[in-house]
TrEMBL record:
Pathway where it operates: Amino-acid biosynthesis; L-methionine biosynthesis via de novo pathway; L-homocysteine from L-cystathionine: step 1/1
Family: Belongs to the trans-sulfuration enzymes family.
SUPFAM superfamilies referenced in this protein's UniProt entry, alphabetically: PLP-dependent transferases (SSF53383)
Presence of keyword NADP: no
Modified residues (N6-(pyridoxal phosphate)lysine): 197
Name of the protein: Cystathionine beta-lyase
GO BP, sorted A to Z: L-cysteine catabolic process to pyruvate; transsulfuration
Cofactor(s) for this UniProt protein: pyridoxal 5'-phosphate
Domain of life: Bacteria
Length: 382
């Protein structure tokens, strides 16, 4: 069979084409021999990308106000790939204690065993991170707010210190999405999104993205992507682009409903504390107000102390919220983080069990009813 070339018929669609291919074919010997020179933007084999993945990268970079983007097969692959691209044995890596759990596990169980000096820092450290910087500090990892107990980080302050010392910075920006916060505009080197959440928006795919401005960093990460085998299927890249078409309206509606429901919960007798920076009562509120342009769709709460059975009853009473660990989609979700998980964490915000809610696009009165019923069930065991 001959390779397929671009058809002559005029055909224009509003949808980007899904272009599959592991093999890329070349016009002649010279072209093939020089194929490596096509990187970081071009195509030489499926592992470095397809035109569909490139289109997604172009669109995400535009949203982040960045020059380049590399997409990966999950948010965790983006976090891990970004660190792997630049951190080697003998380097010192600073990781916020409120970063995504799997990133911390990767740092602790893999990087540390490969000779990286991994240090977790207090999420509220701000510019006081300076004394932690050593001559071999290579990168600082942040996530703001941390997506279980919602600690806000002073991202611009940490980025400014890092720049002065020639240290790289990476922010997991998934909570806010690029519509709510753009870390690259605050001096950060790498902005990571789990596109699995808001960008995809429908809980049906796993994709990650690393956006940046520096061409040299982009070359390193394109190579890292290829060496680690981190390419995205064109079907998933297409689905993220479809999700992004409605990102702005979804985010606006979810953000509005989330603040509304969180305020209502804050007034319920059985709710001891809301962990949610958009509320004035949250210690991260001033930073949230200064930096963020969204209420997000995710917050946590701590109920009045009661037995584990009471938490079972709360979750089992839910009818409109599904029980699940992810977030950012159109369906509302509830997740449970038991007390020992908090107590074991460095610089934990609480030692109490945490309930995390992701607010979707359902009727908000139905969601409130659901939570009212769940709190009643909890109260019977409290
Ligand atoms: C804040 C944050 N970052 C990264 C990830 C990882 O994304 P993925 O599930 O696509 O690997 C998650 C997933 O829950 C997350 O919540």
């Amino acid at each position: 069979m001959k390779p397929i070339t671009t058809p002559n018929e005029p055909y224009r669609s509003l949808s980007p084409p899904v272009m599959r291919g592991s093999t890329v074919v070349f016009d002649n010997f010279q072209d093939f021999a020089n194929r490596k020179t096509r990187q970081p933007d071009g195509y030489s084999y499926g592992i470095t990308g397809t035109p569909t993945a490139r289109e997604l990268e172009r669109r995400i970079a535009a949203l982040e106000h960045g020059k380049h983007c590399v997409v990966t097969p999950s948010g965790q692959a983006a976090l891990m790939g970004c660190v792997m691209g630049f951190v080697r044995g003998g380097d010192h890596l600073l990781v916020s204690a409120a970063c995504y759990g799997a990133l911390k596990t990767y740092a602790r169980n893999y990087l540390a065993r490969m000779g990286v000096d991994v240090e977790f820092y207090r999420p509220d450290i701000g510019a006081d991170i300076e004394p932690l910087i050593k001559p071999n500090t290579r990168m600082i990892c942040m996530e703001s707010p941390g997506t279980v107990t919602m600690e806000m980080l002073d991202v611009p302050a940490i980025a400014a210190v890092a720049r002065r010392h020639g240290v790289l910075t990476m922010v997991d920006n998934t909570w806010a999405s690029p519509l709510g916060f753009r870390p690259l505009e605050h001096g950060v080197d790498f902005c990571v999104e789990a596109a699995t959440k808001f960008l995809g928006g429908h809980s049906d795919l796993l994709v990650g993205a690393i956006s940046m401005n520096d061409r040299g960093h982009y070359e390193v990460l394109r190579e890292t992507q290829s060496i680690m085998g981190l390419q995205v299927s064109p079907d998933d890249a297409f689905l993220v682009m479809r999700g992004m078409e409605t990102l702005e309206v979804r985010l606006a509606a979810q953000s509005d409903a989330t603040l509304d429901i969180a305020r209502w919960l804050a007034g319920q007798a059985l709710v001891r504390e809301l962990l949610y920076p958009p509320l004035e009562s949250d210690p991260g509120h001033a930073l949230w107000k200064r930096d963020m342009r969204t209420n997000g769709c995710l917050f946590s709460m701590i109920l009045q102390p009661a037995s584990e059975r009471a938490h079972h009853a709360f979750f089992d009473a839910l009818a409109h919220f599904s029980i699940g660990a992810s977030w950012g989609g159109t369906h509302s979700l509830a997740a449970y983080y038991p007390a020992p998980l908090q107590a074991d964490r460095l610089y934990a915000r609480t030692d109490q069990p945490v309930i995390r809610l992701s607010i979707g696009l359902e009727n908000r009165e139905l969601l409130r009813e659901d939570l009212r019923g769940a709190l009643e069930a909890y109260g019977k065991h409290a």
